[in-house]
Amino acid sequence: MAIMPHSDTVWTVVVLVCCVLPMCCAELQWLKLSSSADDLEPLPRQQCAMVYYESGDEVIVFGGRKGATLFDDTWIYSVPGGSWSPVVYDDDMKPAARFSMVAGVSDSYLYVTMGQGRDGVCYNDVWKLNLGGSFYKWEEVIPASGELPEPRYGAVGGTYCNHGDVYVSLGFSSQRQYSTYRFDTAQEVWQEVADYIYPYSPFHPNARKFHSGTMTGENRLLIDGGCLSGGGTGGPCPSADSWMLDGERKTWSRIGDCGPARMLSAMALLPAASVDGVLVSYAVMYGGIDHSNQYISYTSLADNELMVIDVSSQQWQIKSIVSSESPSWRSGHSMVMTSSGVMMFGGVISSASLSNELWLLSGNSSDVDDTMTSSVTQCWVYSISYITIHGCLMFIGSAIFLHWGGWVARYTRRWRLAHIVIQVCGLCMCVCGFIFACLSVQSDHFQFAHGLLGLVILILCLVQPCNALIRIPLLSSKSGPDWRMKLWTYFHSTSGRVALVLSLVNISLGLFLAVAQFYLWVGWLVCVFFYILIYIVSEIYLQISLSRKRPSTPPEGEQVQMSAVTL
After folding, report:
1. N or C: which end of the chain has fewer CB within 10 A?
2. Mean pLDDT value across residues 158-177
3. Which of 114, 102, 110 has its CA nearest to residue 59?
4. What does the pLDDT read at residue 226?
């Protein structure tokens, strides 16, 4: 006789299968938020401002561009209603049309600042829109006091969870900007958080534009990637470095890199969640341009892959989103955290057409661990750029060949043939490295210290073979005065020493610009220490040997050879 299960037992099983198991095994999912054909919606665009107004459960979009057409309109998407509506202003006063601006919501006001407008004009004005009133009206905020930040676009910042000050970090105008400011919304004044006039430092990010970023706390800003080349600076474009700003301490700290280099990507926080009684918070980053004419070979992420960072541990992961539909890879889009996940709007999709699609990455921070990890192992991706080749050639040619060629000339006896062969090889590599350096920089090749110093070193290196040709007739001329040989020796050895020392300095500057990993810095410092040690030991040995032979004066030509440090 068959035993029929009790009806309560059946319903218990159904509840467990349909409700509890999905909650335990929830994953991040992409959902396309479509509207009916009769609904109004914003035109396709990129690099617009996108914020979330928590009190109204609304997503707000302002500005952006479509080619040369710039927008100054404002749209509101009602999350509960699932529809767009244009904002009708109470008067004609509003911010100028712009793109690549910084925006944030603080205490029921939408703040918009910075950006680039028509005819390439960059702004540093501040506007606010009352979102909690009975009508919408823009108002320009004139700072009461304090220094204004430089006008710029391509910066990042905003506010944290609809509260606090508006942060603005880095960006570009006539040159790359190193500074970070915050706008005190209560006092309506600008405050400088971090401003660096010295670009070659491991303690703050290089100047850049088109990086992505999000506020992870009221005074904490996370940034990643961007374009570091041009505008009076050099470096990768796009880049792959990540940094965290502590606005209270006014300090930056570099965090681990992950994934391919990128610019014009978008980043947003996932809603925080409690896991085993501990509040966890993650941020996600999606899309972007992962190559440029700097790159020879590179690896891209798939359309359904995104990067996730644990805000507490500051560790990146690459996750694959498995859903019935996924957005096409894009750049110049905008993302913002909402109550149900992260919303994404607009951008240039992979087919080079603009989009006005609205997507929802549904879920919260507790769903990250249940989402499938990408097959990309330990955040490592493969890429080769002109900067990489430039750095390798310069290190091998200058730090190895030229230095050891100079060492051979000073500290060995039968040095001439070995010196010539080593120096010619090193010089050829340096010339090739210089060519790749010019290819890697977008513009303004010699308007920053590393590029200008590299040109000076190359000129000194090219002069050295000419000095060697002059030396031969001087030695063969027995009737010539002694002062000519002394002058040649002094110039040849001094210019050689200067070039060798400057090459070590310039390689160090290059590591700063290339945002080199920690292990590269360790290897380079070990190499420099080794060179210093070898030179000290060799010089001590040479001086001891000379002191023992001092009573017997060697021929004049041999003295010249032993005293000259050549390239």
Report:
1. N
2. 91
3. 110
4. 94
- The candidate with the shortest Cα–Cα distance to 354, out of 387, 374, 316, 328, is 328
Q: How many Å separate Cα 107 from the centre of its chain?
A: 31
In contact, 262 and 224? CB cutoff 8 Å: yes
The sign of the dihedral angle between the CA atoms of 518, 429, 466, 485 is positive
Long-range contacts (CB closer than 8 Å, 24 or more residues apart) made by 242-247: 242/309, 242/316, 243/204, 243/205, 244/216, 244/220, 244/314, 245/167, 245/169, 245/180, 245/193, 245/194, 245/220, 245/221, 246/219, 246/220, 247/167, 247/180, 247/182, 247/193, 247/219, 247/220, 247/221
3-state secondary structure 267-298: EEECCCEEECCEEECEEEEECCECCCCCEEEE
Q: Which of 161, 287, 182 is nearest to 224 (CA)?
A: 287
SS3 80: coil
Give pLDDT tens digits for 172-231: 987 888 899 999 999 999 999 987 766 677 888 988 999 999 999 999 999 999 998 877
Q: Which residue from 403, 385, 329, 387 is spatially nearest to 359, judged by alpha carbons?
A: 329
Distance CA 106, CA 267 (A): 19
d(CA 511, CA 517): 9
CA atoms within 13 A on the CB side of 253: 8
- Cβ-proximal residues to 93 (8 Å cutoff; 6+ apart), any chain: 137, 138, 139, 140
Q: Which helix (H) or strand (E) holds 159?
A: strand 156-160
Are the C-beta atoms of 492 and 466 separated by less than 8 Å? no
CB 503 within 8 A of CB 399: yes
Phi, psi of 77 (to 5 degrees): -105, 120
Evaluate whether 101 touches 113 at the Cβ level (below 8 Å).
yes
pLDDT at 384: 87
Rounded Cα gap, residues 101 and 51, in angstroms = 12
| CA-closest candidate to residue 437, choices 457, 464, 422, 465 | 457
State the DSSP H helix or E strand holding residue 220, giving kind and residue range, or none if neither: strand 220-224
Q: Are the C-beta atoms of residues 252 and 196 closer than 8 Å to each other?
A: no
Percent of the chain at pLDDT above 90? 54
Rounded Cα distance between 515 and 206, Å, is: 8
Distance between CA atoms of 449 and 301, rounded to whole angstroms?
A: 35
Give φ, ψ of 172 to 5 degrees.
-150, 145
Across the beta sheet with 315-320, the strand order is: 266-269, 282-286, 305-310, 315-320
Residue 73 backbone dihedrals phi, psi, to 5 degrees: -90, 160
The whole-model pTM stands at: 0.84
For the sheet with 212-217, list strands across it. Answer: 212-217, 220-224, 242-246, 251-255
Phi/psi of residue 457, nearest 5 degrees: -65, -40
